[in-house]
Amino acid sequence: MKLSQRIQELDSLISTGFEQLARGTINEARFKIFCDKYEAEQKGLTKFVSETKADIQTAKQDAVDLKAFLENIRECTDIQKLTPTLVNTLIKKIEIFNSVKGEDGKKHVPITIHFRSVDIVTVPDEDEIIAAMEEIRNSPTKVA
Q1: Helices and strands (H, E) in the chain, number of each type
Q2: Is 90 exposed, middle or buried (0-12, 13-18, 19+ CB in 10 A)?
Q3: Which of 28, 84, 90, 91 is most buried as measured by Cβ atoms within 10 A of its Cβ?
Q4: One pLDDT digit (tens) per residue for the chain, 144 residues
Q5: Nearest-angstrom CA–CA distance, 114 and 101
Q6: How far is the C-alpha of 28 from the C-alpha of 68, rounded, in Å?
Q7: How many Cα neighbours within 13 Å face the side chain of 130?
């Protein structure tokens, strides 16, 4: 990687500058100017490389998570019964809130369902699910 090479090159330049300072071929003020500049560049590059490596690792983990999710979701194409395993596969958490009185005067209990990988997959509404299930039942060879 070119950035890693540049970080090593900056180390070498700092070492060379220090040797020149020790030999008296450059003065301390000049060494400080060069050293500060090189160290600032090196610090920025090191931070950038570290963050980039972390981003790559996160992307790899997201890919693994997506693959696992897709493998699990393939098993859920014709749901006949909601099982604990299926719920744990598809749902991350369910929040149940205090009851509230609606405009119609009846009490309602709001809930929020947090699906796994919801940012990756768009969850269809009821009509879309019914239509998709009907299509799968009518022509299972078409839908692959």
Answers
A1: 4, 4
A2: buried
A3: 90
A4: 688 898 899 989 999 988 998 898 989 999 899 899 999 999 999 999 888 888 888 888 887 877 777 776 666 666 677 788 877 877 888 899 999 988 888 898 989 888 776 555 566 777 887 888 788 777 766 544
A5: 24
A6: 59
A7: 3
